[in-house]
Amino acid sequence: MSFIIKTAKFLDESVLSKKDKNTTFARRFIKWAERCDNGIKECCLNATNILPDYCILNYTKETLEYFKPTKNRIFNKIEESAIFEKDTYKFMGFIIQGPSNFPYSYTYHDLKEYFTQLDYTQSHIPHPPSVPMLLGLPQTTNLFDLLSSLLYGTTVSVGISLGISAIVIVASTSRPLLSLAAILSITFSISVITASLLIFGWTINVIEATILVITIGLCFDYSLHLAVAYKLSSDIVVTQKIR
């Protein structure tokens, strides 16, 4: 429990000290224990005693909104609080919220800078027995994971889609030059759509990834039908084959 006191002193000397010193979880818990009005003798903090873990559990039950009776269990706000093991209620750590200089964004590049700064800050924190974890809010981390998977997964999915399209076209037409023309047509169409998105300043996001997927499907469908129709036509005139 002593690391809570050390954390409170560290926060008082850091950028978080711009907030009211009684607003951080560690500071509020210490003030609660120092008042000695909680009815539990063991939870009265002084210069000699060490508080047991159930003191912080009792404090959390008294103060955290989640433990208070309510008809509504939908919570959108994450409060600074203690972290307990689910079944045993063993004290594991606590949450501390702090300010950020990075504005909220829906683009991968902006969120990448934010999480890079978190990793950099965590690497410069002196490691106590329990190494702290610096994370964003669940909504932010989930969005970053989604954008990251779209950024790196879209290229892979486009390559796999082109490979499958090429195999199907080659198997359907059995003509190397005709298959090559169809594959080049699909590749060119995808390149034009991607370049258009970049020119208009769009980044790979949910909407852009959906557009690319639809583009591949439409290009493959049209090119395959045209190539097969061209192969099955026995006319010599090219315009009649296309018709």
Let me know the average pLDDT. Answer: 73
* Percentage of residues in DSSP E strands: under 5%
Tell me the major beta sheet: 2 strands, antiparallel
The secondary-structure class comes to mainly alpha
| Helix-strand topology string | HHHEEHHHHH
Radius of gyration: 30 Å
Number of domains: 2
Tell me the span between the first and last alpha carbons.
Answer: 81 Å
DSSP E strands, number: 2
How many helices? The count is 8
Given as residue ranges, the uncertain stretches (5+ residues, pLDDT < 50) are none
Q: Helix proportion of residues, in percent?
A: 55-70%
- Describe the strand arrangement of the main beta sheet, using strand numbers: 1-2
Tell me, briefly, the overall form.
rod-shaped
GO molecular function: transmembrane transporter activity
Transmembrane segments: 150-170, 177-200, 206-224
Subcellular location: Membrane
GO cellular component, one term: membrane
At a glance:
The chain has 243 residues and is mainly alpha-helical. It folds into 2 domains: 1-99, no CATH class; 142-242. It is 58% helix and 3% strand.
Q: Which SSEs are present, and which pair or pack?
A:
Layout (H helix, E strand, L loop, with lengths): L1 H12 L11 H11 L17 H11 L18 E3 L6 E4 L13 H16 L14 H36 L2 H24 L6 H27 L5 H5 L1
Antiparallel strand pairs: 1-2
Helix pairs in contact: 1-2, 5-6, 5-7, 6-7
